[in-house]
Design brief:
Blueprint: E1 2-8, E2 11-17, E3 27-34, E4 42-50, H1 55-60, H2 64-73, E5 78-84, H3 90-106, H4 114-126, E6 130-137, E7 140-149, E8 153-161, H5 171-194, E9 199-201, H6 212-219, E10 224-235, H7 237-252
Parallel strand pairs: 2-3, 8-9
Antiparallel strand pairs: 1-2, 3-10, 4-9, 4-10, 5-6, 6-7, 7-8
Length: 254
């Protein structure tokens, strides 16, 4: 389980990942991918990969084209590197936030609140619950993945690539960056396996039309469907009073 705590207005706020039972501390608790299904909980569908098996067994479950690209990436000018927990520097986080902002720009969109993203990543880093993985094509960092992880599970959090910004935007550039992305996922699995984790969590597998292609990509790695639940719980008198006041203020603004 991952527990991230912050404090505002004298109230403790918690983000709790992968809980198998209700959290016992007082405050406002946001559950992410909990095994518990409380009233009002929203279901969360994802795919998970068992990374306790041998590396070749893990790869054998990939779809044919996926396996081909992972194998070919090892013959291309693609390199990968990973950092986790306190090994991640403030500069590493700054670099990722800039990369993530450029990724959104490449999609003709803008990244909301990059400073807030940096603050959040620092919280997870300091809780020893953040991992960052990078794939480079030649000397250019082209793909980033971030993860929330505990002692059992690594959950994909952000995934971004910059093939749209490669010089000339050649079709071959797009293909090799896509290949690097697949290879990075496989390398990430082996990295977390080496750390003794058991589950690689794909961070969601929605069925909506807007994410159908992303889900199809994830399915090509042969994961198993898993359902969990996300919800908010308020525990303790102070937290209940705070939420009551917030709800009154929100109603007054309608």
């Amino acid at each position: 389980m991952v527990e991230i705590k912050s404090r505002k207005h004298g109230i403790d706020f918690y983000k709790v990942w992968f809980a198998k039972e209700p959290f016992k501390k007082a405050g406002v608790i946001t559950y992410r991918q909990s095994s518990c299904c409380e009233k009002g909980a929203e279901p969360f569908d994802t795919l998970i990969t068992d990374i306790t098996e041998d590396a070749e067994v893990i790869k054998s479950k990939f779809a044919k084209n996926c396996k081909y690209e992972v194998n070919r990436a090892q013959r291309e000018d693609i390199s990968v590197r990973m950092k986790a927990g306190r090994d991640i520097s403030d500069e590493d986080i700054d670099t990722f936030v800039r990369f993530f902002g450029d990724f959104w720009k490449s999609k003709q969109m803008s990244l909301d609140d990059p400073n807030g993203l940096k603050k959040e990543l620092l919280q997870y880093r300091d809780a020893d619950a953040l991992a960052i993985a990078i794939a480079s094509v030649g000397s250019k960092d082209s793909v980033y993945h971030t993860y929330v992880y505990d002692g059992i599970r690594a959950r994909l959090w952000h995934s971004a690539s910059l093939f749209r910004l490669l010089d000339g935007e050649k079709e071959d550039d797009r293909k090799i960056v896509g290949m690097a992305n697949r290879y990075l996922h496989y390398a990430d699995m082996l990295f977390f396996k080496e750390k003794g984790l058991k589950i690689y969590d794909w961070g969601g597998a929605g069925l909506g039309e807007d994410v159908a292609n992303i889900t199809k990509f994830k399915e090509s790695f042969g994961g198993t469907p898993e359902k969990s639940y996300e919800y908010e719980e308020v525990r303790g008198l102070k937290a209940h009073i705070f939420k009551w006041i917030v709800n009154i203020m929100e109603d007054a603004m309608l």
